[in-house]
Amino acid sequence: MAQKKTVKKTAKAAKSTAKSTAESTAESTAKTKAKKATVAPAKTGKASKTAPKMAAKVVPTKAAKAAGAKAAAKAAGGKSAAKAKTAKAAAAKAPAKKGKARKKTAPKASITVYIPGAQAPAPAANANAAAVPADASPEAAEGLDIELADTTADELDLAAPPAPAVPDKAPPRRGRKPAAYATAESMAKAQRSISVSEFFAKNRHLLGFDNPRKALLTTVKEAVDNALDACEEAGILPVVQIEIREVSETHFEVSVQDNGPGIVRKQIPSIFGQLLYGSKFHRLRMSRGQQGIGISAAGMYGLLTTGRPVRITSRTGARSAAHYYELQIDTRQNRPDVITETTVDWDVPHGTRVTIELEARYQKGRQSVDDYLQQTAVANPHVTLIYRAPDGREDRYNATVTEVPEQPGEIKPHPYGVELGVLLKMLQETKAKTAEQFLTEEFSRVSPRVAKEILAAAKIAPSTRPRKAAETPRALYEAIQNTKIMAPLTNCVVPIGEDKLIAGLQQVVPAEFYSGTTRPPSVYRGNPFIIEAAIAYGRPENGGNGEGNGGGGNGDEGPGDAEPHGGSRGKGENDNDASSLAKVIRFANRVPLQYQQGACAITRSIVDLNWRSYGLGQGRGSLPSGPLTIVVHMASVWVPFTSESKEAVASYPEILKEIRLALQDCGRKLGSHLRRTARMKQELKKRSYIEKYIPAIGEALRDILSLNAPQVDQLCADLKDSLERSRKL
Questions:
Q1: What dihedral angle (degrees, nearest 10) is formed by the CA atoms of 365, 366, 368, 370?
Q2: Rounded (10°) angle between helices 420-429 and 435-442
Q3: Running DSSP on this structure, what letter comes out for residue 531?
Q4: What gap in Å lies between CA 593 and CA 195, rounded to an integer?
Q5: 239-249: pLDDT as tens digits
Q6: Residue 537 and residue 313: Cα distance in Å, rounded?
Q7: Which segments within 158-296 are labelled E, that is strand?
Q8: What mean pLDDT value characterizes the chain?
Q9: What strand order describes the sheet that includes 322-330?
């Protein structure tokens, strides 16, 4: 009996402990869930002001009861296994009876708590099972029933949170409306012609206006070229005045005045206010300008950068009035827009003065206005240049030749230089009556005999009309290419001349040795051309510095503008340094080429030549080294420039060959000079050694032969005379 009582007490204690442990665990979890259920709707703004009061009674599940019984058994001090099983069985029976008794009371309602943002719970097997958060304890996760003790199902009106509303259509995006696709009609309305001035206004770098420093040089160059062409055509020794005045830190005013024949009043607006307007494009004759773009493009650049018009003053004679214009170019129509037109008093008998204000930057050195004018004096020894720099300095280059260069003649195109499309157009537009007459009158170097030979090869009758021959232009074109025709006339090309080129070089580059050559005329694509070359080596014996060209480039130079392989020597550099590279001066129709030296055929020919065979040092793929200046001039009726800015000569095989031959001629003369100089130095060195010991020889002979002082002096003089005769320089 005592043992049964002890077992009953132990079971009762275990039951009480298990019940209290399970209820406390379930009650704390339920309170936490109830708190979240109450607070969560408030976050969404749907919570009511007065929440219904309810008391939740927690009913532990079987798993929770078992866990509590197990804990109580351990707390009882480790009773026997039989007592523990008895306590566990008693604890399991007790709630079951109590649950049956509860079913007789009023039905209670269970609530499933949903946590906003959590994953929807799986359906529970027990209708009274509540969803358990993910962070609940494992004991609670096995099953806890939250039972509302004081609230019936009718009094409780809780439902699952409503599903978010899904709109039928996405709301329209705010902002720009999508652009409509173009149609053939809308694209046709947008089409319009583009004028050449409008094109170059957007692509002014093609004309040499890449940066402010280069724009200043290009403006001066175009104005000076026009002035020299006008004076030479009129048979006048050119006197050109160049003035650059600083208006502000970034704006300069360029004025160029010449003593040429002047410009007719009606032609002034078109010459300075319209691109591709000139008299040189349609004729085969040597001239500085070719396309009729330069000076009008400079005025357009000044208008775009400063908004100021071009100012022109021109007078054709002492008895004529001086006309003054202010005009600007209409880029949309490519025509001049005259702002001011009047007559003024001008104390110049004849000539033209043009003034352009533009955005620019003045800087001395290589590829500057100063450098350009120095090189212009080399290739144009008959020109007098007066230059007033922005810093107030005035430089003057006087003419060393008092004769105007010979006037070049105008020739007709050579058959070898005409392409198929040009030939077809000439056949359609000619005024000749027969095909034979067409060939003899429209081309140079085509005699009646050669014309019949060409027509026979093309199987065309000599009396065939040109328009009929235009139906088979390829046969005629191939016959021309296969027929031997004399080279074109060369009176259309006037070279500077070897003597004049050296005279101009001496004015700017003092040296100890000069050499020059002028090649015979040659032809590329039917266009005659002449190559000239000159070199200046060393320094003068008096050690004079000379003027030379400035040095040092600047940041405005483009990828193709820097001097290749070290480029040119600048002012202030040590020209006697054997490691310094040669200086290259390039000309095309007497115009200095300042930029894109590495892309020019002249530089390529100089680099490819083996200068070591002439006594100079040269690295692989570089210019020769030493105190050397190389000048190359190409004269032609049509210089093949690589771009519209006229900065480099294209590398045609015929041009490369002639440049190489001219440089080889100058190189041979230089090599002879260097070898002769080395031989003289060696002989002088040997003579100095012998002369040093002649007095000692005289004294020794005096002691041996018992000579007096006059005899010793005479003996030394005879020895020196014998030395000079045997060691000729």
A1: 60
A2: 110
A3: E
A4: 29
A5: 999 999 999 99
A6: 44
A7: 239-246, 251-258
A8: 76
A9: 335-344, 322-330, 310-315, 351-359, 251-258, 239-246, 384-388, 394-397
